[in-house]
Design goal:
- The protein is an alpha/beta fold.
- The protein contains 15 helices and 15 strands.
- Helix 1 runs parallel beside helix 4 and helix 13 packs antiparallel against helix 14.
- The longest helix is centred in the middle third of the chain and has 36 residues.
- The chain is elongated.
- GTPase that associates with the 50S ribosomal subunit and may have a role during protein synthesis or ribosome biogenesis.
Length: about 450
C-alpha cells in the first residue's frame, strides 16, 4: 500500500552535530542502536551545521553527497540520528531514492522486535500508530483520491481520510485494552500492599545490566544480552531476604536519552511499577565513560513518570571491567559509599560474576528496614490470643520460646506502622507486653574504611 522505497538491512548512518544544540546525540550510541536493530552498518557520516534546514534538515549539497554514498554502497536505508519531520523524511527519500528513518523510528523498530508479551506488543503498536499518524500524508499520497463505483461517486471521504479514521479507531481500541491491563496491574499492586510486601524496582540506562542483576538476585532466567533494549516486558519475582523477609524485585525497560514521548506514554502502565515501588535500584554502568550523562537522562525520565520521589540507591555495576587495583573492595568483593548521615547512596557490584551481591542485599535490607523493629514480647495465650494469631498471619515471628515462669515469648521483626495497627486492633499497649527492644545497629560513614565522595560518582584516577 506504500508508494515509498522498500527498506532493507544495509544502512548508511548519518549523525548530525548542530552548533545551537547543547544536548547532542551520541554517535556511538546511535551505532549501538542500529546494531541492536539487526542493521548492517555500511558507513557513518558526520554532518556539522549551524542550524537545520526546513526542507532536508541538512544542506542540499550534503544530500547529493549522501546520495552518492548510497549508490556506492547500494544501501537499503538511511538512518538519521535525529528526529525528522514528516516532510523532511519525504524530501530526503525522494532525493536519495531510498527509505529514510529517523532516530525515533529506529527505536520503535527495536521495540517492535523485542516485544514478547501481549501487553508489550499492544504498547509498541500504540506507539507505532501514533508515530505513523503524522506521516500518512506522505506515505500514502496515492490514496488521496476519492472512492469510485456505485454509491460512492461524488463528494465524500477520500481514501486518506478513511485511513486516518481507521487509524484513530485502532488507537482508541488499543487505549481501551491497555486501560484494562492498567486496572489489572493496579489490582496486583493493591494485593501486594495488603500483604505488606515491599517492591524493589531496577531502573537505569539501557544495557546497564538490569536483567543480569535481576537474574543474579532472584535466580531467574530472564533474557539478558549485551544490546540496547534487551528487556521490554516487566518481570516480577518474589524472594526471601535474609534478616528482613519477603520482597519483590521488578525488572523494567531501560531508559535512553531523548526517549520518545510516544513510547513513554505507551509504556506508562509498565512504568507505573517503578513509580509505586518502595525502593529503586538505579543501575549505572561504572565502566561506561558516558555514565554521568546517562544518570541525568534516567533522572529526567523518572521525573517525567512521577518516580523521582521514590527512595533510591545507585548500584555501580560492571566493576569487573575496572582496574580494581586503583580502588579498594570489602570482603564480599564490592563496596558501599555512604552519605553524611551514614545511609548507603552507592553500592559497587558486578552482576556478571557476583562481586558485591551480598553487600547489595544487606544494603537493600538496611534501606527497607529503616522502619523495622526487632522485638521480644510476652504474648499470653489467653489474654493476647488475637494479637498472637495476627503476628503469625503476618509471618513476622522469628522465634518462639518460654521464659523461666513458662510464659510464651515471641521474637518478631515487624514494620512500625504494622505494629501500631495490630496493637490498636487488639487494644494492647506495647509497654504491657514488651520484654526487649533489639535496636538495629546502623553503620556510621565514619566507620567505613573507604573515602566517600558525596558529590558525584567519579571513579578514582
Amino acid at each position: 500500500m506504500f508508494d515509498r522505497p522498500d527498506t532493507g538491512e544495509r544502512a548508511l548512518l548519518v549523525h548530525l552535530e548542530l552548533d545551537k544544540e547543547n544536548d547532542c546525540e551520541d554517535p556511538q550510541e546511535f551505532v549501538d542502536l542500529a546494531l541492536s536493530a539487526g542493521v548492517e552498518v555500511l558507513e557513518v557520516v558526520s554532518v556539522n551545521r549551524h542550524h537545520a534546514t526546513p526542507k532536508f534538515f541538512v544542506g542540499s549539497g550534503k544530500v547529493e553527497e549522501l546520495s552518492a554514498i548510497v549508490r556506492l554502497h547500494k544501501a537499503d536505508v538511511v538512518l538519521f540520528n535525529h528526529a525528522l519531520s514528516p516532510s523532511q523524511e519525504r524530501n530526503l527519500e525522494k532525493a536519495m531514492e531510498v527509505r529514510v528513518l529517523d532516530r525515533v523510528g529506529l527505536i520503535l523498530d527495536i521495540f517492535a522486535q523485542r516485544a514478547r508479551t501481549h501487553e508489550g506488543k499492544l504498547q509498541v503498536e500504540l506507539a507505532q500508530l501514533e508515530y505513523m499518524s503524522t506521516r500518512l500524508i506522505r506515505g500514502w499520497t496515492h490514496l488521496e483520491r476519492q472512492k469510485g463505483g456505485i454509491g460512492l461517486r461524488g463528494p465524500g471521504e477520500t481514501q486518506l481520510e478513511t485511513d486516518r479514521r481507521l487509524l484513530r479507531a485502532r488507537i482508541k481500541s488499543i487505549h481501551k485494552r491497555l486501560e484494562k491491563v492498567r486496572r489489572q496491574r493496579e489490582q496486583g499492586r493493591r494485593a501486594r500492599l495488603r500483604n505488606e510486601v515491599p517492591v524493589v524496582a531496577l531502573v537505569g540506562y539501557t544495557n546497564a545490566g538490569k536483567s543480569t542483576l535481576f537474574n543474579r538476585l532472584t535466580s531467574s532466567d530472564v533474557f539478558a544480552a549485551n544490546q540496547l533494549f534487551a528487556t521490554l516486558d516487566p518481570t516480577l519475582r518474589r524472594i526471601e531476604l535474609d534478616g528482613f523477609g519477603p520482597i519483590i524485585f521488578a525488572d523494567t525497560v531501560g531508559f535512553i536519552r531523548h526517549l520518545p514521548h510516544k513510547l513513554v506514554d505507551a509504556f506508562r502502565a509498565t512504568l507505573e511499577e517503578t513509580r509505586d515501588a518502595d525502593l529503586l535500584l538505579h543501575l549505572v554502568d561504572a565502566s561506561d565513560p558516558r555514565r554521568d550523562d546517562n544518570q541525568k537522562q534516567v533522572a529526567e525520565v523518572l521525573k517525567e513518570i512521577g518516580a523521582d520521589t521514590v527512595p533510591a540507591v545507585k548500584v555501580m555495576n560492571k566493576i569487573d571491567a575496572l582496574d580494581q587495583a586503583q580502588w579498594p573492595l570489602d570482603s564480599t568483593g564490592g563496596r558501599v559509599d555512604r552519605d553524611a548521615e551514614g545511609l548507603p547512596e552507592r553500592v559497587w557490584v558486578s552482576a556478571a560474576n557476583g562481586q558485591g551481591i551480598d553487600t547489595l542485599l544487606d544494603t537493600i535490607a538496611e534501606l527497607l528496614g529503616t522502619d523495622v523493629r526487632l522485638l521480644t514480647i510476652r504474648c499470653d495465650m489467653q489474654m493476647h490470643s488475637r494479637l498472637r494469631s495476627r503476628f503469625f498471619e503476618r509471618n513476622v515471628v522469628e522465634n518462639e520460646a518460654v521464659d523461666e515462669e513458662g510464659r510464651p515469648l515471641l521474637t518478631v521483626r515487624i514494620e512500625q506502622h504494622i505494629l501500631d495497627q495490630l496493637l490498636s486492633h487488639a487494644d494492647v499497649k506495647l509497654s504491657e507486653i514488651l520484654v526487649e527492644d533489639h535496636a538495629p545497629h546502623r553503620v556510621s560513614h565514619k566507620d567505613d574504611e573507604f573515602e566517600v565522595n558525596d558529590n558525584d560518582d567519579t571513579l578514582p584516577a
